[in-house]
Amino acid sequence: MSKNLRLDDTDRRLLRALQADGRISNADLAQKCNLSASACSDRVRRLREEGYITGFSAILDPTKVGRDVLIFVEVVLDRTTPDVFESFAAAARKAPDVLECHMVAGGFDYLIKARVADLVEYRKFLEEVLVRIPGVRETRTYAVLEEVKSSTSLPI
């Protein structure tokens, strides 16, 4: 049985409200979801313990912190063996400019989402980090011209 089948309508309301405002007080969240404060607190604790809520964080404006340029990079490895996959994944996890790294099926092996200050910084990242990872054969870069939609909220 899939874990998400155990969510009832109240759990879904709680999760939607917390995705919209992770700093909402328990009292306000309880009121918004038609619960008592203690029942609300108990449900949120259960949702955290069961792994539905994995954490809370502040969402920053990239331009205000000097990360104006969003880049996607397709990465092709020279070999698709477990050791090459693991070494690439470990290097991607350590790279601070990498926001997301996904192993994908299709015409390339990994898709990276990165944020950098400008294209000069991206070139530095590409030369000093990405292509130096053992196993990287080829990369294709896509600089984002306009973010049409960017969301961290899951539809539930």
Secondary-structure blueprint:
Elements: H1 9-20, H2 26-32, H3 37-49, E1 69-77, H4 82-94, E2 98-103, E3 110-116, H5 119-128, E4 136-143
Antiparallel strand pairs: 1-3, 1-4, 2-3
Helix pairs in contact: 2-3
Number of strands: 4
Helices and strands, in N-to-C order? HHHEHEEHE
Distance from N terminus to C terminus (CA atoms, Å) equals 18 Å
How many structural domains are formed by the residues?
2
> What would CATH call the class of the largest domain?
Alpha Beta
Strand order of the largest sheet: 2-3-1-4
Please bin the fraction of helical residues: 25-40%
Point out poorly predicted stretches. none
Average pLDDT, all residues: 95
Percent in strands: 15-25%
CATH architecture group name of the largest domain: 2-Layer Sandwich
Radius of gyration: 20 Å
What name does CATH use for the topology of the largest domain? Answer: Alpha-Beta Plaits
Organism: Phenylobacterium conjunctum
Keywords: Activator, DNA-binding, Transcription, Transcription regulation
Pfam families: AsnC_trans_reg (PF01037), HTH_24 (PF13412)
Domain HTH asnC-type: 7-68
